[in-house]
Amino acid sequence: MKLIKHAVLLVALCSVVARAEPSVPFIGDLWSGIGEIGQDIIDGIRNATQEGADIAGDFLHHFQNATDEFVGDAKEYSQSVLEELHDGVVKGLASFARNVLLTLENLQQTISKVSNNIKRQVLQDALDVLVRINATATELETDVANIGIELQQRIESHRAEIETVLNQWSKSQLDTVDQETDGAGVKEAEQLINELVLRYGTYLNSCAEEVELRKVGFELQVSDVIEQYHNATTALAIQIDSCLRSTNSGRSARNCRNGVQGALANLIQAPKNLEDLKAAGAQLISSGLQGSVCVVQTLQELANEKLSVEIKIDIIIGQNKKAPEYDSTTLPIGSE
Ligand SMILES: *[C@@H]1O[C@H](CO)[C@@H](O)[C@H](O)[C@H]1NC(C)=O
Ligand SMILES: *[C@@H]1O[C@H](CO)[C@@H](O)[C@H](O)[C@H]1NC(C)=O
Ligand SMILES: *[C@@H]1O[C@H](CO)[C@@H](O)[C@H](O)[C@H]1NC(C)=O
Ligand SMILES: *[C@@H]1O[C@H](CO)[C@@H](O)[C@H](O)[C@H]1NC(C)=O
Prior knowledge:
With 336 residues, the protein is mostly helical. It is built from eight helices and no strands.
């Protein structure tokens, strides 16, 4: 499970370096060593997050070979790189939203002056799509900016729930030992229980890191989609501009329509895809730790271990039982 943190670091490194962000030049050397394995990891994460599958198995197995060599160096840069990735996505979204809004406002101001019907119709189509993209892009920007904080809050509250249940269980076990042994078995039982609680605390930390990994996957996904639509918006703006400048001859009107329609085709799925991303972000937050297979498995293992601790506690109780208080109405156990 400790691999997961390393995976997050390496993935963050890879993703930043793969995009050749000029603001992090120092990672270049690491990247040249990570090479293909790093690319596989990015692919794996993208695939996993897209398919909603768990990030595990082959992917982590693959990663195992990379860790030894690179993790030592990678660790140093981890936090700044994760932040860099997050900031990059937020900035990318903001710049996309601005691009959309400028194109949209420009068109809103000029469309009424277009007298040619063919032109006005296709420009109106473009305007409708841009309005829908504008609304969603702005919302997505806010969501992505806050996702880290909201996810953290979710994780904390899930952890608190798990801890509460575990504390209640611990207390009831210790109370029983205390009562049954008059305190004699408490120390031994405490050791058993403390070990369990500490160990599962560590496991849950690792699970929280898995959730962080999902966040990285989500941010990469947003980043990909935004880059594509940012370019498509720029291409559309160019078509709109040339359309607005063109004459009203039948030929220019048809050129305008074909040009705008062609550029618009690349944006037609954008409102839906952006909505889907918003939903994926909301899903990531709302499922938090509970959505993590790591947590589900960990809680299952915890339930099993609690049972085995309870058996050991019964033995402790048996070994430290209070001196029996003989009572004429009860017979020794096992007697007929
Ligand atoms: C990711 O998915 C693509 C297409 O399905 C596949 O070719 C590729 O091998 C996958 N990568 C990993 C690391 O699973
Ligand atoms: C990891 O390295 C070992 C030894 O070099 C090799 O046998 C194994 O196939 C590698 N695993 C992966 C997934 O690359
Ligand atoms: C763009 O979206 C924002 C946020 O939803 C909204 O306030 C604004 O009015 C929209 N602008 C246009 C021109 O539709
Ligand atoms: C978007 O445009 C930039 C700069 O023109 C280019 O480097 C990049 O590859 C393009 N991305 C996509 C997804 O088309």
